[in-house]
Design brief:
The chain has about 150 residues and is mainly α. The protein has one domain: Globins (Globin-like). It contains seven helices and no strands. Helix 1 packs antiparallel against helix 4 and helix 5 crosses helix 7. GO terms for molecular function: heme binding; iron ion binding; oxygen binding; oxygen carrier activity; superoxide dismutase activity. It comes from Hylia prasina. It holds the Pfam family Globin.
Length: about 150
């Protein structure tokens, strides 16, 4: 079937929560990455540009970090827009997962880390309800990405 695992009401509230954080996609995307690189320094090893950056301030100013933060938010935004149709959703998640598994060889646990940081940021900025309504979405994203990794032999 081409329906998602989220009910219509869940999709509505998830979209509402996401819209609030996506309004400032570049700043919030950057904040998420800076927090990830600071709290999980090993994640920097995948980004040749960011390797030498140690201070959060330096990362915040970096065009590469800002650019990638925006990219991450734009990819998630694309997924959020297609939550009601699992075929469309998978059409976005699958190539992204394949690229990270085969070309970039990113550890799949990093997706969970990014999602958890997004949820933290949502809670800090907009409260617990926002976080709760978006949690199912991050679980969907991470589950599908992990499945793609398994298919690619991880």
């Amino acid at each position: 079937s081409s329906t998602m695992l989220l009910s219509e009401a869940e999709v509505q509230s998830a979209c509402g929560a996401w819209d609030k954080i996506h309004v400032d996609a570049e700043d919030n995307g950057t904040a998420v990455l800076v927090r990830m690189f600071t709290e999980h320094p090993d994640t920097k090893s995948y980004f040749t540009h960011f390797k030498g950056m140690d201070s959060a301030e330096e990362m915040k100013q970096s065009d590469q970090v800002r650019g990638h933060g925006k990219k991450v938010f734009s990819a998630i935004n694309n997924m959020v827009q297609h939550l009601v149709n699992s075929e469309a959703f998978l059409g976005i998640v699958t190539p992204l997962g394949k690229k990270h598994a085969t070309q970039l060889k990113t550890d799949p646990k990093n997706f969970r880390i990014i999602c958890d940081i997004i949820l933290q940021l949502m809670e800090e900025k907009f409260g617990r309800d926002s976080k709760a309504s978006f949690e199912k979405v991050t679980n969907e994203i991470c589950t599908h990405l992990n499945n793609i990794y398994k298919e690619e032999g991880w």
